[in-house]
Amino acid sequence: MPLEGPLDTVIKTLAEFRLTNDQLLEVKKRMRTEIQNGLGKKTHDNATVKMWPTYVRSTPDGSEKGDFLALDLGGTNFRVLLVKIRSGKRRTVEMHNKIYAIPMEVMQGTGEELFDHIVQCISDFLDYMGMKNTRLPLGFTFSFPCRQTSLDAGILVTWTKGFKATDCEGEDVVGLLREGIKRREEFDLDVVAVVNDTVGTMMTCAYEEATCEVGLIAGTGSNACYMEEMRNIETVEGDVGRMCVNMEWGAFGDNGCLDDIRTEYDRAVDDLSLNPGKQRYEKMCSGMYLGEIVRNILIDLTKRGFLFRGQISETLKTRGIFETKFLSQIESDRLALLQVRSILQQLGLDSTCDDSIIVKEVCGTVSHRAAQLCGAGMAAVVDKIRENRGLDQMDITVGVDGTLYKLHPHFSGIMHQTVKELAPKCNVTFFLSEDGSGKGAALITAVGCRMREQEES
Ligand code: ADP
Ligand code: MG
């Protein structure tokens, strides 16, 4: 028998990350159970996948029009946008936006500081657009788990993705925003809707493609939403029609139901995160964490002498150093191994040719699993919709946004393939839906304004 080479050992280490078809089917099944728990009146309180109602009752019908302001908070960048929607024969959506930084000390300071900062950015934007004297309707894309009680009220359940500002959890974020605007006494706005980015993404796609009834984000975080039957949403009164539910599926697994497939590296990433034990599925699937999983594997392999000549450099010890964009670069099919080494070099990691082969293998394995897990979750969603409608076969479109989905060389393909295999009765089309947080928020705000006018007349 040939002597076991380093690559064989590495392959053994990575075997845990390779999920079988049965395991993926099991993940799909468990997601379905958690969906049911989130929707059920009696099970909701203890459910991990919360299935929050969004009060978005229909996708756009094309008659939406007007000027809207949108805020996008909860991604890498905080943005303020002006969206001009024209209806009629020539439907157009014109967008202007500015990106603003949210300094770490504001992200993790007090809620008042955070909202004062947000209002300060809006002020700057309105000056820039010359629109300070109009009371514009605003859609607030706030991509954190919120307990909504109406279109314009959302209580922050818990921060995720690195945010930690105090005195916000348990508060209505629309109220916090309105108070911030009042404190400044400089301009007025009509806050109409609080919007999750998944819902914005679905709405943006649905504006172009009527069969879109699902939204998916694969970016910093991972989440999905879809149009559920009112009769199945036991946490909201009424049985007629549909409502979009923000699944908050990132928390899938927080009750331990994915522990059999989580590895020691997943646990290490979780333990050192800002929210240990929370968002376990998201931590296996999304951009914020994939690089960290890779880094933890690399450290372990180095400790065991299979990488970097057994030397753990200060760089490798640095949290966050291995960003997910490096996975995309390293896994690019066009890249020669020498270029992989040069990427590692840029990161301050001296590698041999063998090292670069191993690193590429590690990256590929971690992102492959991420895409499969995301696909298994999506398979559960589309099959649920199909069953809701009593169909043997169903065509459906999913609007997707997120840099991981857009820029990773293999993530989208593997995810699509997984959905196809795990939900063969659904013919799913994925539609890249860019800027849902801006355009989608404006569309939801437009629909909200229209509904309000109908109620008043
Ligand atoms: P957000 O989800 O924050 O609204 P994005 O969809 O742009 O915004 O996602 C940003 C995340 O995407 C980053 O946090 C990072 O993890 C990941 N990312 C950035 N660049 C790349 C890339 N080239 N390939 C894959 N993932 C990337
Ligand atoms: Mg985003």
UniProtKB/TrEMBL annotation:
<dbReference type="GO" id="GO:0005524">
    <property type="term" value="F:ATP binding"/>
</dbReference>
<dbReference type="GO" id="GO:0005829">
    <property type="term" value="C:cytosol"/>
</dbReference>
<keyword id="KW-0324">Glycolysis</keyword>
<dbReference type="GO" id="GO:0006006">
    <property type="term" value="P:glucose metabolic process"/>
</dbReference>
<keyword id="KW-0067">ATP-binding</keyword>
<keyword id="KW-0547">Nucleotide-binding</keyword>
<dbReference type="GO" id="GO:0004340">
    <property type="term" value="F:glucokinase activity"/>
</dbReference>
<feature type="domain" description="Hexokinase N-terminal">
    <location>
        <begin position="12"/>
        <end position="207"/>
    </location>
</feature>
<keyword id="KW-0808">Transferase</keyword>
<keyword id="KW-0418">Kinase</keyword>
<feature type="domain" description="Hexokinase C-terminal">
    <location>
        <begin position="214"/>
        <end position="447"/>
    </location>
</feature>
<dbReference type="Pfam" id="PF00349">
    <property type="entry name" value="Hexokinase_1"/>
</dbReference>
<dbReference type="InterPro" id="IPR019807">
    <property type="entry name" value="Hexokinase_BS"/>
</dbReference>
<comment type="pathway">
    <text>Carbohydrate degradation; glycolysis; D-glyceraldehyde 3-phosphate and glycerone phosphate from D-glucose: step 1/4.</text>
</comment>
<dbReference type="InterPro" id="IPR022672">
    <property type="entry name" value="Hexokinase_N"/>
</dbReference>
<comment type="pathway">
    <text>Carbohydrate metabolism; hexose metabolism.</text>
</comment>
<dbReference type="GO" id="GO:0005536">
    <property type="term" value="F:D-glucose binding"/>
</dbReference>
<dbReference type="InterPro" id="IPR001312">
    <property type="entry name" value="Hexokinase"/>
</dbReference>
<comment type="similarity">
    <text>Belongs to the hexokinase family.</text>
</comment>
<dbReference type="GO" id="GO:0019158">
    <property type="term" value="F:mannokinase activity"/>
</dbReference>
<dbReference type="GO" id="GO:0005739">
    <property type="term" value="C:mitochondrion"/>
</dbReference>
<dbReference type="GO" id="GO:0001678">
    <property type="term" value="P:intracellular glucose homeostasis"/>
</dbReference>
<dbReference type="InterPro" id="IPR022673">
    <property type="entry name" value="Hexokinase_C"/>
</dbReference>
<dbReference type="GO" id="GO:0008865">
    <property type="term" value="F:fructokinase activity"/>
</dbReference>
<dbReference type="InterPro" id="IPR043129">
    <property type="entry name" value="ATPase_NBD"/>
</dbReference>
<dbReference type="GO" id="GO:0006096">
    <property type="term" value="P:glycolytic process"/>
</dbReference>
<protein>
    <recommendedName>
        <fullName>Phosphotransferase</fullName>
        <ecNumber>2.7.1.-</ecNumber>
    </recommendedName>
</protein>
<dbReference type="Pfam" id="PF03727">
    <property type="entry name" value="Hexokinase_2"/>
</dbReference>
